[in-house]
Predict the 3D structure of the following.
Amino acid sequence: MKRYFTFIMLSLCLIGNAQNINDILRYGTESLQGTARFQGMGGAFGALGGDLSSLNINPAGSAVFNNSLITISATNYHRDNDASYFGRLNNTTVNDLDFNQIGGAFVFKNTNDNSDWKKFTLAFNYDVIDNFDDEFYVSGNSNQGIDNYFLDFAQGVPFGAILRQQGEYIENAYLDIGATQGFGDQQAFLGYYGGIIDPLSPEDSNTDYVSNASYTNVNQQFLRNTTGYNSKFTLNAASQYRDNLYIGASLNFHSIVYDQYDEFTETGYDLGSEIQRTTFDNYLHSEGNGFSFSIGAIAKLNQYVRLGGSYQSPTWYRLTDDFSQRINSDLADEDIGYINFDIVNLFDTYTIKTPAKVTGSLAVVFGKNGLLSFDYGYQDFSQAELRPKNDVNFQSVNDQVSSELSAVSTFRLGGEYRIGMFSLRGGYMFEQSPYANGSTIDDLNGFSTGVGFNFGGSRLDLAINRTEQDVNESLFNTGITTPAMINRVNTNATLSYTINF
């Protein structure tokens, strides 16, 4: 008789497939998002201001506004992934339309002519700083089967420790082992009852395991689908001092929702193999909130040249993960279907601290005809960390972060040329790889273009930006060590409308 219930249990252990170096990079980087004007100029606004998304670079930027305004933006996200795995190439595309920005600024001008403080600005802005909607698919003939994944976890684990008790439901045993013994023992349990591995001997004290699959090469198919977002809500205050200095500060409140669905199928075993087909799927859900602050200044050196500088603090994210799995094979236990996505491992709240970032900026303004702007950003990812730091598993990840990640320099260049009510824009963005080896994730290159229409009391802006980056994506954290090589091309088309008051 089918059992209709859901198990959710707390676990004190680290998930091997969840909290790791990938989380730090996923939540610690910001893609080129924001208003259409901001994107059209490659995000190079640190010395310019005058745009709500420029607050993400330099909070002094709101003091540049001459009047109050509201801006709202919508973006069409297009993802194009070419994934190569053991010489076979597959392409996937994803399209997603969403409102990605809304904000406003309120400018209060000082009517006292004797005061050096010319105006004061209060601003708020909501930006989707990263959209996680994406997908890639790979297939290929590998000499590393999924049995290696389960064997890596099982070797050294007493067989008796992963056996379910008399009369115990299989899903109860799965959750209990994960909660009390850890993720590794739980995966060994799943491999055994999934029919993939067996103990070398049936004694409870046995710690050696063998594969039930026989192969030279196997055909593997893997799909990873991700959804969600990383958003930032900014509360900002800034002021203009005399005619040549703008200063500002912001409080930033971050929100994260991330879902990752992995679907794995393996076939092509030897004709004599007891296993001819294996499926193994994983689902991860993460959500949480974060906080950061930023300070900055913009100085007018003369009527042409402006300098900007800003500091963005580390972001402290407080996150919760839940994780579920399902497995099947020709030799799986008859009750294996009860372990599915309704059987959820809920994990303790943890913290990710992403590194601080400093930005230096230079802009040249040619009166009402146009401008050129350049930003340089520096962020040291080797300083990121998972907390609590006294957790032995987090210590291992933090050691990996400090040894494998490095400082990242970001260069952004943008320009705008005005012809009456029209503005033509272009931009370029380069971001170094966060990995010291420079190959696990390659450098990112991006180009953008845009056009604006100024109607006096309102403005309409359109921008298209394209970024490209090569990434070596691991299918699993252990067992299958050959990564998929993915060329990621993201193309965003953004439309913004601004109303001036």
